Automatic annotation (TrEMBL):
The protein's name: Amidase
Enzyme class: hydrolase
Pfam families attached to this UniProt entry: Amidase
Positions of the Amidase domain: 28-441
Keywords: Hydrolase
InterPro entries associated with the record: Amidase_dom, AS_sf
SUPFAM superfamilies in the record: Amidase signature (AS) enzymes
MF terms in GO: amidase activity
Keyword Hydrolase in annotation: yes
Native source species: Saccharothrix longispora
EC number(s) from the headed UniProt entry: 3.5.1.4
Amino acid sequence: MTETTAAEWPSLTDLRSRLTGGLLTAADLLSACLRRIEEVDPLVRAVLALDPTAREQARESDRRIAAGLARPLEGVPVLLKDNIGTAGLATTAGSRLLAGTPPRDDADVVVRLRRTGAVVLGKANMSEWGNFRSTGAVEGWSAVGGQTRNPHVLDHSPGGSSSGSAVAVAAGMAPLALGTETDGSVVVPAALNGVVGVKPALGLLPGRGIVPVSRAQDAVGVLAPSVADAAACLAALAGGPVVRPAPARGLRLGLWQGRRMPGTVLAEVERVAGLLRAAGVVVVPVELPWEGPPLIAGMEALMAEFRVGLDGYLAARGGPVTSLADVLAGNRDDPVELELFGQELLEQAAGVTDEQIAGAAANRARARWWAQDAIAAVLAEHSLAGIVAPTSEPAWRLSGGGDPPTRNTSTIPAMAGVPNVTVPAGFLGDLPFGVSVFGPRDTFVALGLAATVEEVCGDRRAPRFLGA
């Protein structure tokens, strides 16, 4: 383990077998992660904080393993996005305003994680406030952690908002990481950095104790080297079956090209479709609708949900920042927070009226029903098990002037609340390309379809840190 890289991590099944079989200790596995972080994190700035109790957690795992009391993720280090509450450890959502007042309690998902025996390794950088601060924001940037970088090509974006979680797994700093997604925040950075990202079905994992964007749409997700590893993590946290690839021959999958994707992406989509067809999958071209009224309803709901959710979270957490109004004022007084871009989304949310708040539930329901019906209609019309689509355009070059407009396919499954799994499926030049698999409402059924896509056309490569 001393020379491990992203391409050399054993599978989670192998790691657990080595740990329980006495071939590896949890303390040694943790040390390997810490060495890797020390080696490569200065290049990518993915890790915000290390948990000072991690070594004691690892020793406790070794004691439990020796006593024959190992739990499902015993001794496995896991990195957490820094909006996921950890008692006594920085949970900033990227904002300097929260840096001095860590939460008193673990988020519910962290309670579950500890019960599985996992070692909480530390916290990962993220797009500040879940990328819900400015239309001119830079993904992967926070005032606390600075700019996270793509480990494949360092002057390119890592995507967001679960930037550090995706980069850390891609660069071999942790076998697993947790992120969160409202719309694209797990699957897009996973695709841009060449790892598996799973946004589970809404509600599979609990959201209490997490800095919210939308309590009605936020989901805790997993970033991992493989579908099997992500599935094992989710099974440990939520209960679930062993995931195996669905038989490829005769499997019917829809192929959605997304909206206005560039030609390079469309060519890669056709290559993936060809591989699937060669393996016996019936690939059917499909279209998903893109209608203004339900999309606008979803955004109007999101604004109100953000205001109400963040006010409630900050008031319950305590400390000097107890409301969205405090955040706005604190950012204006801080020398770092507004140096790259503004906070117009926060200001817009602060201006939400009581009438808009009262209408948020109806707007959310309208948007969700539309998205669910859009997916269900396509599946039923063509007798499909699921849909495959390009997750995103490849990573773009970083600049201080904000991110360029980019296209992805995460919005409809996010609004529908259905699981979405992205799988590394190739490269465009030096940059990873991923495909999303969604459609089924059951997370583990979707994972089985994604495992098939991974088996047929998966292509994950260790990053080369070009430009270092």
